[in-house]
Structures are given as structure tokens and as C-alpha cells.
UniProtKB/TrEMBL annotation:
Residues 492-518 have a biased composition (Basic and acidic residues). The chain crosses the membrane at residues 121-141, 186-203, 249-270, 282-303, 324-341, 361-380, 401-419, 439-461, 538-560, 572-598. The keyword Transmembrane applies. This is Integral membrane protein. It comes from Streptomyces graminofaciens. Keywords: Membrane, Transmembrane, Transmembrane helix. Residues 1-22, 485-518, 784-810 are annotated as: Disordered.
Length: 810
């Protein structure tokens, strides 16, 4: 063990006897520096209004008074909540939920070794799935604006008279006004999907300039090999500026091309009819050829390049980023002019040719998800879990399952909006043809899906009831209640050990009186917290049923060319009734769900609690960089991880002191990611204190390639020391399941929650069940932190290797 010696920027050398720093990182939902530092007088020492580091006013010049901090660290608070939940406008990001979900699927690949091409193919399939979601969303907007509104409703006299705001587009109501020809109606209606695409492009560009453009610390080439084993430690992992710009250009171009095709295809189909003008027919052929050529370029751009992690990629494809969207916009303008050309005798009837579009998108998504499942299975089988403690979700199929849910969300949102608009516009005596039958089929499978969800809820309720009954006996045994059963003989060795460890420090005396209601509340909290571990099974069932129902809807729509109610006519009465009920109920449920969706978003502008709830959703879902979809909500970690890395590296470089990185909940994930980004010399000075941490329970199971047992073991072997705290009533945090033969284990004994069963001298009022919050309220927290500081000590060991575990890290 070498003496920790560092040279400061001024040239003086420190021997490591200076003050220690405790850098606090809060979790989901956010916090304030005053609450984190337990002092109303705080000051920002570095950072901006979005994310910053704070200290108490009394500790601002702590480095100049090291003698006052011999027995305690200098606390600092890193506040990052404004990266996700600081603005009410971010409630509208709920509309981008399918994009966020498909982006998560990219990071859920199984752990593997020596399968780089297969890993690249996995990423390619996810990127293509994300591209289909963009085309689907814009195609749905075109269906509503062009087909249902401008083509069907404005072309029908009864619908146009019912909705007077469409009167100027109707050839019968406006007496053949300038906008009444079908092509001009389509060109005008195309402004809606075009504006939607421009909005998505603008939001992606703005967040890209704020998040992805935050450059991480450049550690130099000699440290690349040290961190290459763990993906989160690679130099370019948190710098996706080039890829997001490239994908943004491709997706924006694909969206503009979708609008252009929706406008130009009906006009070209009319011009190909016998007797059509030859010049317009030629122009239509040339325009469609140009659209197909540029679409092929977009597909090549998406397939050509994935993430660059092994180096800090500072370049940018300026020519591609600028020219690809510009070319697609130019083709869109040509399509608008082409469609708006005068065509005497052209009348709108029936539906626009959208059946093949939505059917092709749905078929492509099914094929991509199935292929993704095959590739994920190959990756999982190439490197099965060698550690029996590993609990990879769904045996490596979590990524394909989540990708399937993203496609289902996109399909439900598209079908639901189209069906509701069709019902609203067609509420006249002359019904409209309505949306493509595939969208009606997709809306009709919602009631069966809800029945499956109700079954799963019932199963979870039953399991929770059973677990609560088991926990009641364990609670009575742990708190030594009078009249409680002696369950120690019926408990497994592990649970019996937990029962004894949870009573640590409890004085032996007379048993406490038994309170059935209190026991039920504690047991219910533990049972509800255990539901988190059943999420893989629930997601797997939902994904499988979604795939089955989606395939059924696709086959039914393509085979019958009719809606479910029309296809069931002439069959058994109960079949026809069920089909009609499912179709009507699905449309109604989507309408109600969409209204609730919008209402919740509007409420977030005025209600801080609602805004905080939505912020928590994004805190969990947007940790990962945008690798599959550029229109997903931005990755806050691309700002937070470099912030933490820069702060730790510069402070230890200037002072040569010790540092405790203390993270709660999602803050522990940010802390681990930042620790991986440090150089070995700095990493050896850092101690980790995590509490309420989802590192193994959630991230290790769902993202095994990045937080699996090998990766966490590597981190354990390279930081100075690590201690993890958790409760059994915590639905998010849990043990990290790491230990070393030459040192104390990482996981502490689970904290007792509540601290007291009944009223005691230390707790004269009933102690609350804290669950995931207020870990510092437990006296054991202070003891664990003191022991961690004592282990860190003034003499800091150099970086260690974790032996075989480090060599097996991905």
C-alpha cells in the first residue's frame, strides 16, 4: 500500500492528509441542496441553473482549513433534477414514449464475448425498428390529416356541412373554390404532418446541443486499455454527438419523405389512368423514383454507422446532417406542387392508398422483432451466466420484448387517434369509409389485451397476498412480539439470517405487544416491494400476447380486407357480437385513454406533484444515450456523468485528498457510471456508498451487458472500497451481491424498517415505514459511513484488479 501523494496545479505536493470530500448524488424525483446538505445556507460552487455542485456556506473554503475536517468529510451536493423534471413542458415528452422504449431495447442485449459482429447486428435491428416507429407516427398523422380530413370528410357533402371549418375545402359546399380540388386539399393538409416533423426535428436538435454536446474528460490514449473491459468506462460512451446528429438527419428525412409520398402517390395513381396527361404521368414517375432513391439513402445512413465508444469521436457528418433533410424537404415541396396541379375531373372517393403502407410497417416490425429475438438468444447462449447469483431478465430476451412493446405502443397510439378522429368526423347520416382496416383491427385487440392485463393484476395480487402472509410471521419473529409464532424453524437459512440481522442492536427485554394492523402494514410493504422482482415475467407475458394479437390483426386485415365487425358478419351470432363490441370498445377506450393522457400532461403545468411524477418516469427511462432513436427524450447522463467525472478528477488532482461518492437510488447508478470514467489513479482514491440502489436489482437484470456481475465485480475491485445499504421494504433498491475473500462484503445487513415496531423511549411516536426514502434517518447509516471513511483512511491503496471477474467483463 503506497502513500497517496499528488501534485497540485501550483506545483506543491500533498501527502493525502487533507480533508476528505463526500459528494452526494440524489435519486429520482429530485431534491434540493438545502435538504441534501441539511443546511438552509448553501452556495453554488460550480455548474449552472441546470445542474450544479453546492456546499454549505461554512464549508466553502474547507481546503484552506484542513485541521477542522480531520474527523469528518466536507459534504458537497450534486443536484441534477433540472436535467429531467425541472420544466412543466417536459410533460409533453409522454408523447415520445414509444421512442424512449425502443431506445431502451438497444441497451438490453445480453452479455457476450468475441461476438462483435453479432452485437453490431443487434444494434442495427433496433435502429431499424426505431426507424419504422418514426414512419408509423408520421404515416398516422398523414392518415388523419390527408385521408380522413382532406380526402374523405371534405369530399363528402354531409361531413363538410357538419364540420363547417372544412367548408372552404369542399367542392360542393364552396362551389368549387380554389382549394376544393383533391390535390390542393392534400397539399394543404400535408402542412400538419410537416409541422409535426419539424417540431420533432427542432426538439431533437435543441436537446442534442444541450446534452450530447457536453464533452467528457479526455483521459488520453494510455487509459483506453484500462477501461475497455467495461463498456461504461470507454472514452466515447457518454458522447453520442455524431450518432444522434446522423440519426436525426435520417429520421427527419424519412418523415418528410413519408409526407411527400402520402401527397404524391394519390396524384400519380390518378395520372396513370388511361387518358391522363402524359407530362404529369412522367413527372409523377420521376418524383416517385426520386423518393425511392432518397429513401434508400436514408436506409443506408441508418445501417451504415452505430455507436463509437472506444474513442472520443469529435467529428460530425456536416454534409450528411445538412443535405439529407434539405433534400427531403425539396422533394416534399415538389410533391406539393405536383399534387396541387390542376386536374379537371379528379374526385375523391373511398380511402387513400394506405392499406399497404400500414400493413408493410406492421409486417416489418414483426420481422424485426422476431429477428431481434433470435440474435438476442444467440448472444445469450454464447455467454451464459456463469455466476449463479446472476438474474438476467427473461434469459436475454428482454430487449426484443421491450422492442415489441414499443411497436405496440406506436401502433395503439396511431390506430387509436385515427379511429377516434374517424368516429368524430363520421358522426353524420353519411358515414365515411374510415381509416385503413388494419388500424381498426389494431384498435379492436385492445379489449383482449386489457383482459390479459387484468389476469396479470389478479395473479400479482394473489402472489402479494401469499407473500404478505409469509412475511407476517417473519415480522413477528424479527420484532420479538408477544404471542407471535416462532417461525425460525420454518425459515430458510438465508431468511433466518436476515431475521436475526434485522434485529441488530435491539436490546433484549420483554417482548413488545402484538398489533395485527401494524404487522400487516409492515408485511404488506415488504410484499409490495417484492413485486419488482416479478416484472420480467409480467413483461414477457405482455410482450408475447402483444406479438400474438398484433400478428392476428395483421393477418386478419390482409386476408379479409374488412374490419373485424364486417369480417364476422355471417358467422355465429356471439362471434359477430364479440367482434362488434371489441371494435367499438377499443375505439372508445383509446379515446378515453388519449384524453387522460392529454389531461395528465396539462395538469403537470400547474401541479408540482404531477410534474414530479412524470419527472420520475424520465429519470428512470432516459438514463441511457440515444442510440436507436434521435427523437427519444434526451439522455441526462450525458451531462451528469461528465459533470461528476470532472468534479472528482479535478478535486483529487488539486488536493490529493480522499473522496466518498455517495449515491441514492438513481444517483448510485450515476455514481457508478462516473467512477468507471475515472483514470485508475483517481478511481483508487474513491469510495462508493450506495443506498436504495437499483444497480443489481434493476440494471443488472435488465442491462446485463453493462451492469452484469462481471462489470460490478470489476468496479468493486478498482475503487478503494464500496458499501451498499438497502431495506427489504424498498421496491427499487436491493443488494449488489458482491463479496471479496480479502475484505468485507459490499452489502450491509438490510436496514430494519420501520426502526421500531411500537412506541419506545427512542421513538415515542409511531415510526414510519420509509421504504425507498430517508436512509439517513436510520442511525445505522451514520455508522456505515464512518466505517467506510475509516476503511478509506488517509492512506489510499492503488487501483486493484478483481482477478478473473475483471477479465470476464464485457
Amino acid at each position: 500500500m503506497e502513500r497517496a501523494t499528488e501534485r497540485t496545479a501550483s506545483g506543491t505536493t500533498t501527502d493525502g492528509d487533507g480533508p476528505a470530500l463526500e459528494l452526494l448524488v440524489h435519486g429520482v424525483g429530485g431534491s434540493t441542496p438545502e435538504r441534501m446538505l441539511d443546511d438552509p445556507r448553501t452556495i453554488r460552487i460550480t455548474g449552472d441553473d441546470t445542474a450544479a455542485v453546492f456546499r454549505r456556506i461554512d464549508d466553502v473554503d474547507a481546503e484552506s482549513r484542513p485541521e477542522e475536517y480531520r474527523d469528518r468529510p466536507v459534504p458537497e451536493a450534486y443536484v441534477w433534477c433540472h436535467l429531467t423534471s425541472g420544466s412543466g413542458s417536459r410533460a409533453l415528452w409522454l408523447l415520445l414514449l414509444p421512442f424512449m422504449v425502443v431506445n431502451l431495447a438497444h441497451w438490453m442485449r445480453p452479455t457476450t464475448r468475441n461476438r462483435r459482429r453479432t452485437v453490431r447486428f443487434y444494434g442495427l435491428l433496433v435502429r431499424l425498428t426505431g426507424l419504422t416507429l418514426t414512419v408509423l407516427l408520421v404515416a398516422a398523422a398523414c392518415e388523419v390529416a390527408l385521408d380522413l380530413t382532406a380526402w374523405q370528410c371534405a369530399g363528402a357533402r354531409a361531413c363538410a356541412e357538419e364540420h363547417t371549418w372544412l367548408g372552404f375545402l369542399s367542392p360542393t359546399v364552396s362551389d368549387h373554390g380554389w382549394w376544393s380540388p383533391p390535390g390542393r386539399r392534400l397539399a394543404l393538409a400535408a402542412l400538419g404532418p410537416t409541422a409535426l416533423t419539424a417540431l420533432l426535428w427542432y426538439l431533437s436538435h435543441r436537446t442534442w446541443s444541450e446534452y450530447e454536446s457536453q464533452r467528457p474528460m479526455d483521459r488520453g490514449a494510455r487509459f483506453v486499455e484500462d477501461t475497455e473491459r467495461v463498456a461504461l468506462g470507454r472514452p466515447g460512451f457518454w458522447y453520442g454527438r455524431r450518432l444522434v446528429a446522423r440519426l436525426r438527419a435520417a429520421h427527419a428525412a424519412a418523415a418528410f419523405l413519408t409526407v411527400a409520398a402520402a401527397v404524391a402517390t394519390p396524384a400519380a395513381r390518378h395520372d396513370r389512368q388511361p387518358g391522363g396527361p402524359p407530362l404529369l404521368d412522367l413527372l409523377g414517375w420521376l418524383l416517385n423514383s426520386a423518393l425511392m432513391a432518397l429513401a434508400a439513402v436514408v436506409l443506408w445512413v441508418v445501417c451504415r454507422r452505430g455507436r463509437t465508444e472506444n474513442r472520443l469521436d469529435k467529428e460530425l457528418d456536416e454534409h450528411l446532417v445538412r443535405r439529407l433533410p434539405t433534400g427531403s424537404v425539396a422533394l416534399l415541396l415538389l410533391a406539393l406542387v405536383y399534387a396541387g396541379w390542376s386536374r379537371p375531373g379528379w374526385k375523391s372517393a373511398g380511402r387513400l392508398p394506405g392499406e399497404l403502407t400500414f400493413g408493410g410497417i406492421a409486417l416489418a416490425q414483426v420481422v424485426l422483432v422476431v429477428a431481434l429475438g433470435v440474435v438476442a438468444h444467440v448472444l445469450y447462449r454464447s455467454h451464459p451466466d456463469s455466476d449463479p447469483e446472476s438474474r438476467t431478465a427473461m434469459r436475454g430476451l428482454a430487449g426484443p420484448a421491450v422492442a415489441m412493446l414499443a411497436c405496440a405502443l406506436g401502433g395503439v397510439m396511431s390506430a387509436g387517434v385515427a379511429q377516434r378522429v374517424a368516429d368524430w368526423l363520421g358522426g353524420t347520416g353519411d358515414p365515411l369509409p374510415g381509416p385503413p382496416v388494419l388500424l381498426t383491427w389494431q384498435a379492436s385487440v385492445i379489449p383482449p389485451m386489457l383482459l390479459v392485463l387484468l389476469f396479470l393484476i389478479g395473479w400479482l395480487a394473489k402472489r402479494t397476498w401469499t407473500v404478505r402472509g409469509d412475511e407476517m410471521g417473519l415480522v413477528e419473529h424479527e420484532y420479538r412480539l408477544a404471542g407471535g409464532p416462532d417461525t425460525s424453524g420454518r425459515l430458510s437459512g438465508e431468511r433466518r439470517g436476515k431475521a436475526h440481522s434485522d434485529r441488530r442492536g435491539k436490546p433484549h427485554g420483554e417482548p413488545e405487544p402484538r398489533d395485527a394492523a401494524r404487522t400487516r402494514r409492515i408485511a404488506s410493504a415488504r410484499a409490495m416491494a417484492a413485486l419488482t422482482d416479478r416484472a420480467p415475467r409480467v413483461i414477457g407475458v405482455i410482450s408475447a400476447v402483444t406479438l400474438l394479437l398484433g400478428a392476428t390483426a395483421l393477418i386478419g386485415a390482409l386476408a379479409t380486407k374488412k374490419t373485424p365487425a364486417e369480417a364476422a358478419e355471417g358467422t355465429y351470432a356471439f362471434v359477430a357480437g364479440a367482434a362488434d363490441t371489441s371494435q367499438a370498445l377499443g375505439s372508445w377506450l383509446i379515446g378515453v385513454g388519449f384524453l387522460l393522457f392529454v389531461t395528465w400532461g396539462r395538469r403537470a403545468y400547474k401541479d408540482a406533484s404531477a410534474r414530479r411524477t412524470i419527472g420520475i418516469l424520465w429519470d428512470v427511462g432516459t438514463f441511457w444515450p440515444r442510440a436507436a432513436h434521435p427523437f427519444a427524450p434526451p439522455c441526462y447522463a450525458e451531462r451528469a456523468v461528465p459533470d461528476l467525472t470532472w468534479r472528482m478528477a479535478t478535486w483529487t488532482g488539486e488536493t490529493g485528498g480522499r473522496l466518498v461518492l455517495s449515491g441514492h437510488s438513481q444517483g448510485s447508478v450515476l455514481a457508478a457510471a462516473a467512477a468507471w470514467q475515472l483514470t485508475p489513479s483517481v478511481r483508487g482514491r474513491v469510495a462508493l456508498l450506495t443506498y436504495g440502489s437499483p444497480l443489481e436489482r434493476l440494471y443488472g437484470r435488465w442491462f446485463p451487458a453493462h451492469f452484469g456481475p462481471a462489470a460490478l465485480a470489476s468496479l468493486h475491485g478498482e475503487v478503494a472500497c464500496w458499501r451498499n445499504l438497502y431495506r427489504r421494504t424498498d421496491p427499487i433498491g436491493g443488494p449488489v451481491r458482491l463479496s471479496r475473500a480479502d475484505g468485507p462484503k459490499v452489502d450491509a445487513d438490510p436496514f430494519q424498517d420501520p426502526l421500531a415496531y411500537g412506541r419506545t423511549a427512542e421513538h415515542p411516536l409511531p415510526a414510519p415505514i420509509l421504504g425507498h426514502s430517508d436512509y439517513q434517518a436510520d442511525p445505522a447509516f451514520a455508522r456505515e459511513r464512518e466505517q467506510l471513511l475509516a476503511r478509506l483512511g488517509p492512506e489510499v491503496p492503488g487501483p486493484r484488479r478483481s482477478g478473473p471477474a475483471a477479465e470476464s467483463a464485457p
